[in-house]
Each structure stands twice: as structure tokens, then as C-alpha cells.
Write a structure and sequence with these properties.
39% helix; globular; alpha/beta; 5 helices; Rossmann fold; five-stranded parallel β-sheet
Length: 127
């Protein structure tokens, strides 16, 4: 994926109590978060925005986060973007889902630690 914007981080989460503090912390650390509250447009947005990473909650109102993860990894261009699955329900991921995710983090999570992980994932060289 050419012209990756390592500062752009896509956060896919429908719970404001979860994504608002994360969004603030990402901004405080010099990143540019874009919050999507539904899973339906994630692949297109990833292809358009070329983010450094995606933070994905598994419970979404319109589709299962596992389906979003699968769609990302099935797309030739989007699959290059690291996805950090951050959820209370990480046990729902099967072997394949665990293979597709760059990292899996169970909530509750320390925001500074999560942002450190995001920055590390976003800065990795991609093929």
C-alpha cells in the first residue's frame, strides 16, 4: 500500500465510553484518529485513508468484528494494514482470527500501553 499515513489510526468501535478516551489519547500522542462506529465501511475507508493501523472492537452494531477482520485480510490492499483487536470478547477469535490480528488486547486496557502498541505496529515496514 503506497503512501501509508502512519499518523492516521482508524478506530472501529461503537461505544463512546471506549473510543472517546482512546481518541483523546491518540491525539495527545500526535496521532490522527478516525472513528468508525460501524463495520460496513471499514475496508473501503482503510483503502482510501491508508492508515498506519486499525484498532478493532469485536462487538459492533451492524456486523461482527470478526467479519470485519476477515474482510480486511481478504482484501489484497487492506490486508497490509496491521489490525489490533481490542475487546472484552477476545476469546471469540478462533485460530484464524488470531493469526490475522497483529495483536489481541483484552479490555480493560491501559491507554498508554495501547497507544505504544499502535505506534509500534504503524511504524513497521510493509511489503
Amino acid at each position: 500500500m503506497a503512501d501509508v499515513n502512519t499518523k492516521r489510526i482508524i478506530v472501529v468501535d461503537s461505544d463512546p465510553d471506549s473510543f472517546e478516551p482512546l481518541e483523546r489519547r491518540l491525539r495527545q500522542r500526535g496521532l490522527d484518529p478516525l472513528v468508525l462506529r460501524r463495520g460496513e465501511r471499514v475496508v473501503k475507508t482503510v483503502k482510501d485513508e491508508k492508515p498506519g493501523a486499525v484498532i478493532l472492537e469485536l462487538t459492533l452494531p451492524d456486523m461482527d468484528g470478526y467479519q470485519v477482520l476477515k474482510q480486511l485480510k481478504d482484501d489484497w490492499e487492506a490486508k497490509k494494514v496491521p489490525v489490533l483487536v481490542v475487546s472484552e470478547y477476545t476469546s471469540r477469535l478462533d485460530y484464524k482470527g488470531r493469526e490475522w490480528a497483529e495483536q489481541i488486547v483484552t479490555k480493560p486496557v491501559d491507554l498508554d500501553e495501547l497507544v505504544d502498541r499502535v505506534q509500534t505496529a504503524a511504524s513497521k515496514k510493509r511489503d
